[in-house]
Design goal:
This protein is an alpha/beta fold and 301 residues long. It is built from eleven helices and eight strands.
Length: 301
């Protein structure tokens, strides 16, 4: 189903906020590449990253699903499912659920299907476009969307499509990253400036929003969602093993050094040194580092 019919069947907010207008009009416009991080998302470093992030985040995140009170055999969409790390965890949490994992990258889906043994009857993976899902209106009781909002331009359009396929009264579970919420101990480099001066401008240059975590709640409120709540998963060196936290940073380094360097006019060796300084700090006790990860839940009107 195309996006035009999606928007007509799920009413958008009548008065878009400034972020909504900027997302629709900034940069090259509506015809620009809607998957500008495809190379990084399809790299083996991202598969590593998704595994590390699941280990770091899911132990705290899973309790939030109690809020949705899903009984019986719910229909769940994992949008931007990647390698299926969370799809499989959802299948274990909801043993009667029918789950659909959607991703645009065939390589990620191949890894997800390879790890799907024993779940084939309930878990289905398909190639799909988050801007134009091939599902009827009101198809799902719960839509889970994790690590996608910061990866695509024009994310409000994705929210419109989610609203179309989510049934009235259904829930959206949105993990929406915010790269200004990482705090690392200072070493040879200033890590706080790294995220603000290097990562956020790179994302802006490709039309993505590295602060989408804080922008997500008002976007949902503008679309008429009810019971909007924001929780935080705290990925820090007290709650998460240092090797896992360091693994996230190492995977980011391996996938993004070259594009960050090119976008910022810096040497790749310099950007790598920034990452290496943070990795060393995170993996070395008693240093403390923290990443606050916003998780927004909301019920469709």
């Amino acid at each position: 189903m195309g996006l035009n019919s999606a928007i007509s069947s799920w009413p958008r907010a009548r008065h878009h906020d400034a972020y909504d207008r900027r997302a629709a009009t900034s940069g090259p416009g509506m015809n620009r590449d809607l998957n500008p991080q495809a190379e990084q998302m399809g790299d083996e470093s991202m598969a590593r990253n998704l595994a590390f992030q699941a280990q770091a985040i899911w132990p705290q995140e899973q309790a939030l699903f109690d809020r949705y009170a899903l009984d019986g055999a719910p229909r769940i969409l994992d949008l931007g499912c990647g390698t299926g790390e969370i799809t499989r965890r959802l299948a274990r949490r909801y043993p009667r659920a029918a789950l659909t994992g959607v991703d645009i990258l065939a390589g990620n889906l191949a890894l997800a299907r390879a790890a799907n043994a024993g779940l084939e009857a309930r878990v289905h993976y398909e190639t799909g476009d988050a801007f134009a899902l091939a599902h009827a209106d009101a198809s799902f009781d719960l839509v889970v969307c994790r690590h996608l909002s910061q990866a695509v331009p024009e994310f409000p359009r994705v929210l419109d499509e989610i609203g179309r396929v989510l049934r009235p009264g259904g829930w959206l579970h949105l993990l929406s990253e915010d790269y200004a919420m990482l705090r690392m101990p200072r070493g040879a480099h200033d890590p706080d400036r790294f995220w603000v001066d290097v990562v956020l401008p790179y994302l802006e240059s490709i039309g993505c929003d590295g602060r989408i975590g804080r922008h997500s709640p008002p976007l949902l409120a503008a679309r008429g969602y009810r019971d909007v709540a924001v929780d935080y998963v705290i990925v820090d060196t007290e709650r998460v093993p240092r090797a896992i936290f360091g693994g996230i940073l190492r995977a980011w380094r391996d996938g993004y050094v070259d594009v960050l360097a090119a976008a910022g006019g810096r040497a790749a060796a310099e950007v790598r040194a920034d990452f290496d300084s943070m990795i060393t700090a995170v993996e070395t006790p008693p240093n403390y580092a923290v990443w606050h990860v916003p998780v927004i839940s909301a019920r469709r009107a």
